[in-house]
Amino acid sequence: MRRKMSSKKLDIKQKNATSKTNKRTKEGKARGRAPFLFLAPAIIIVFAVLIFPILFSLVVSTYNWPLSEGAGIRRFVGFGNYLALTQDSEFWNSLKLQLGFIFIAIPIELLFGFAAALLLNREFFGARIVRSLLLLPVFFLPILSGMTWRFMLQPRYGPLNNLLIKLGAPEISWLGNPTTAYIAIIVQDVWRMWPFMFMLLYAGLTAIPQELLEAAEIDGAGFWKKLWSVIIPLLMPTILTSVLLRIIDALRVFSEVYVMTEGGPGSATMLFSLYTQRQAFGYQKVGMASAMAIFLLIISIVFALTLVRKNMSLDVLEEKAGA
Asked: Which of 79, 181, 215, 221 could bridge 225 with an S-S bond, Cβ 3.0-4.6 Å?
């Protein structure tokens, strides 16, 4: 009897141990699945908003898909659209104008933003109000900014021409001349986006330890010596990040230029994004427009990899210097 009782107790203990183990295993599996369940909504949104459009554009770029002949009529051409782009003079003109826009506007914005950040990196009466007001152009809608500048540069009724005429200057068609129109869209972009550079660079300046600047002053360094030897090297990661963000944003600039000039006069301001829109909705060549979008994505990736590698090399140098 005692042996039977003891064997029953052992069986009960083994069952309890087994149930506890199974329970722990289930809890472990549930905990292992929990992070994926929390990440699932974000992954679905990223796929729907970012990855799927890229994949769809990649597929569409391999088709000759003229909307004028009906949405269902399409013909597979492989890399035919990409080869056609390389032979399109308007494509190369839009790419040249786009790169010119980037390499002229962004350095000017960086210079203005850096100068303002240095000037306002101190406390004075109304400093917070001044810094806040400087950021206002960034919050302008691009289309509103374009409409404002188009009105200001209007030949007959624009305030700029009215002022020049009162000073005895002739009436100027700012947006009717190829050179002045291209300059105008750059000026508009500089006016709207240099406060963005200021915001990032000011944040970077405030993060520089004051002890380093004070040590440089004790060593006899003047303003320019501190600027080139202390401030700019420490601020370089912030500068590269701000330039990268602005390049990516400038590559997709559209609405403000479209409102101001619609790519004219002629093709003087036909930036890459405007020519992509013309291919899709003007010429109704969706496949060609998708190929241009993929080409723009490749350009963005090249810029991003170049600047990120430069930033990483700076981090490596800092680690070696610290060691």
From this structure: 221
How many C-alpha atoms does 142 have within 13 Å on its Cβ side? Answer: 14
Q: Is the dihedral of CA 221, 225, 226, 229 positive or negative?
A: negative
Paired strand residues for 258: none
Give the model's pLDDT for residue 28: 53
pLDDT of 19 reads 57
118 is a domain residue: yes
- The whole-angstrom separation of Cα 213 and Cα 208 is 8
| Token representation of residue 81 | 């659209």
Asked if 9 and 121 sit in the same domain, the reply is: no
Residues 160 and 93 in one domain: yes
The CATH number of residue 310's host domain is 1.10.3720.10
Task: Report yes or no on 124 lying in a domain.
Answer: yes
Regarding whether 19 and 132 lie in a shared domain, the answer is: no
> In this structure, what token pair is assigned to residue 294?
């993929």
| pLDDT mean over 261-273 | 93
- In tens, the pLDDT along 181-221 reads 999 999 999 999 999 999 999 999 999 888 888 888 888 88
Label residue 78 left, alpha or beta by phi (over 0 means left) and psi (-120 to 50 means alpha): left
Distance of alpha carbon 104 from alpha carbon 246, whole angstroms: 12
What does the pLDDT average to over 218-244? Answer: 90
